[in-house]
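thought: user wants a sequence for this fold. calling inverse folding tool.
action: design(structure=
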């Protein structure tokens, strides 16, 4: 067997969740820029686009009617109501990515993570991002300057609820320094990629090594 076959593996479904503003989007963008093996799941949402957000790249911005049709047609892998809007993960692109041997990163809330855990537990790696303090979280949401005061207030009011789900995750990172947090995320992904159950070619490789070893 060639060493190339040994590299074959099941894709990782890497989930990032956090209270709004803790840094999921920032970390996701950085990972996508630095790692050609991972792609991002682009969610559909009924919320308005923020300035600079691009349809099809940041989200698929769709109407409530279209969202309902997609739910009725089972087009979502998971979906949830978050901050008075609907959000969902389109099923097709995730399946395509995993089939082509890519890893896929999801920026979704705890409700979506629970749904993915029911349908894809073996492939899932769940990372929860905490802010260093609630004061920092609010500063980040305000300095992002993309949401109205009312929206920021609503998100801050829900932060404790979101944080209460931290222990449902495999890893918890405190995003104090973005460079340091990013490095930790890279290490998590590297270690998860090496897990035995994901490495499809490993048993054939080990069997062949043993056969050769026994012949000596
Ligand atoms: N470690 C950090 N230190 C300081 N600022 C940060 C850090 N990480 C992210 N930020 C900034 O905080 C703001 C919010 O980050 P980001 O948009 O990535 O959060 P998010 O978790 O994706 O939020 P949401 O759930 O609302 O989409 C951004 O302006 C980002 O540049
Ligand atoms: N369950 C899901 N949650 C999602 C999805 N896409 C995004 N989200 C979460 O919504 C909030 C708000 O996001 P924002 O872009 O409006 O700031 C945040 O917690 C996201 O993680 C999804 O497809 N499913």
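)
observation: tool returned 216 residues.
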């Amino acid at each position: 067997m060639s060493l190339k076959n040994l590299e074959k593996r099941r894709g990782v479904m890497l989930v990032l969740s956090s209270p709004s503003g803790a840094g999921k989007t920032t970390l996701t963008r950085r990972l996508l820029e630095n790692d050609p093996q991972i792609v991002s799941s682009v969610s559909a949402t009924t919320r308005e686009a923020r300035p600079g957000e691009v349809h099809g790249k940041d989200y698929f911005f769709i109407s409530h009617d279209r969202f309902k049709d997609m739910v009725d047609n089972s087009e979502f892998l998971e979906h949830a109501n978050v901050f008075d809007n609907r959000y969902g993960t389109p099923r097709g692109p995730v399946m395509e990515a995993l089939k082509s041997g890519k890893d896929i990163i999801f920026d979704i809330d705890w409700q979506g993570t629970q749904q993915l855990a029911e349908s894809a537990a073996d492939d899932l790696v769940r990372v929860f991002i905490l802010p260093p303090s609630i004061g920092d979280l609010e500063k980040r949401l305000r300095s992002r300057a993309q949401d109205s005061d009312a929206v920021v207030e609503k998100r801050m009011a829900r932060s404790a609820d979101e944080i209460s789900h931290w222990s449902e995750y495999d890893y918890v990172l405190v995003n104090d320094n973005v460079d340091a947090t990013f490095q930790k995320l890279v290490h998590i992904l590297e270690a998860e990629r090496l897990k035995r159950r994901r490495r499809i070619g490993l048993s054939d490789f080990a069997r062949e090594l043993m056969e050769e070893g026994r012949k000596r």
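thought: summarizing for user.
answer: Here is the designed sequence. The domain at 3-41+102-215 is CATH 3.40.50.300 (Rossmann fold).
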